[in-house]
From TrEMBL:
Enzyme type, top EC level: isomerase
Residues under site feature: Transition state stabilizer: H268
Region (Disordered): 58-83
Pfam family, one: His_Phos_1
Name of the protein described by the UniProt record: phosphoglycerate mutase (2,3-diphosphoglycerate-dependent)
One of the protein's GO biological processes: glycolytic process
Keywords recorded for this protein, A-Z: Glycolysis, Isomerase
Family that this chain belongs to: Belongs to the phosphoglycerate mutase family. BPG-dependent PGAM subfamily.
Length: 340
């Protein structure tokens, strides 16, 4: 069924005229007049959670930008330096519908691709953010998030090429090196990180949600799915997911805003819910009621050391979205002048 869905996706992409050049080897490879998905074998690595031992699928996480090194400010960076930093945009996108979403199965960290509907949702999300600047992209290690990010960027007016970074070995870095400075300037680095993966659902992964409710009871399944600190059998609670996702955001992504970079994160309902909890300072009770729709981008503005939520861009024709700040308005004006 996955093969059928991907062939359907290709038809959708042809009709949108999305792909015109080879982008290089990645988890999602974009090639001339179509695309293909290379699902890599992820190496499993154990890590200690505060509550239990979990096994998570780890993919390579790069900290090297295509055009400039992705680096954190020095430890001596002060609050004053944050206030002097440039205004920057943060876009959050929950991946489009996956094949297991369609089947009503618990997915968690199982690596499942998008459905035809999921592909269309990702493309529509890209249209909504087509005038918003993107300098860096972060995704989880799972293909449905990576597909969503790549498909969304095919719609961007800047027409830069997203390139997945590989630093898992010296050979990987060497073989994926770009030797043209002009080409580097036309690329956007994509960093994959297992810390942004969906919540690991343990023994529920692959089970039908309705059948699981019938077996364990609706109240127990609801408790596993919607409580903050109660995990499913041998799985992660939202609290445990938040520990890794927010820690990664603080250490690796937040410094990009201090440097004036505009960032897009394509991830999952629970990892994004965790990050939003941090950004909006939500309580554990408030975050469990937070619902995120698939394929609908959310926009934040980072300015003077703070993140301010601006809602969801309604579409490229919605001028109000780009009038949130002077910087976004000027960015759209320049794109209109250059590409129209």
């Amino acid at each position: 069924m996955a093969t059928t869905a991907l062939h359907q996706a290709i038809g959708t992409l042809y009709s949108h005229g999305c792909f015109h050049q080879e982008h290089g080897t990645a988890s999602l490879r974009l090639v001339s007049n179509g695309f293909r998905v290379d699902i890599r074998l992820l190496r499993c690595e154990s890590y200690q959670s505060r509550k239990r031992n979990l096994v998570v699928s780890q993919a390579s996480t790069s900290q090297t930008s295509v055009s400039n090194p992705v680096s954190s400010p020095s430890k001596n960076a002060t609050t004053e330096s944050r206030k002097k930093s440039n205004e920057a945009a943060l876009i959050l996108i929950r991946h489009g519908e996956s094949l297991w979403n369609e089947k009503n199965l618990f997915t968690g960290c199982v690596d499942v691709p998008l459905t035809q509907k999921g592909v269309e949702e990702a493309i529509e999300a890209g249209k909504r953010i087509s005038y918003i600047p993107v300098d860096m992209i972060y995704t989880s290690a799972l293909i449905r998030a990576q597909m969503t990010a790549m498909l969304a960027m095919t719609q961007h007016r800047r027409k830069k090429v997203p390139i997945v970074m590989h630093d898992e070995s010296e050979q990987a870095k060497s073989w994926s090196r770009i030797h043209s400075e002009e080409t580097k300037r036309q690329c956007i680095p994509v960093v994959t990180a297992w810390q942004l993966n969906e919540r690991m659902y343990g023994e529920l992964q692959g089970l039908n949600k309705q059948e699981t409710a019938d077996r364990y009871g609706k109240e127990k399944v609801h408790e596993w799915r919607r409580s903050y600190d109660i995990p499913p059998p041998n799985g992660e609670s939202l609290e445990m997911c938040a520990e890794r996702a927010v820690a990664y955001f603080k250490e690796h992504i937040e410094p990009q805003f201090v440097a004036g970079k505009n960032v897009m994160i394509a991830a999952h309902g629970n990892s994004l819910r965790s990050i939003i909890m941090y950004l909006d300072k939500l309580t554990s009770q408030e975050v469990i009621s937070l619902e995120l729709s698939t394929g609908i981008p959310m926009l934040y503005i980072f300015k003077e050391g703070k993140f301010v939520r601006r809602g969801s861009p309604a579409g490229p024709s919605e001028a109000g979205v780009y009038a949130y700040t002077k910087t976004l308005a000027l960015y759209r004006q320049k794109l209109d002048e250059k590409y129209q």
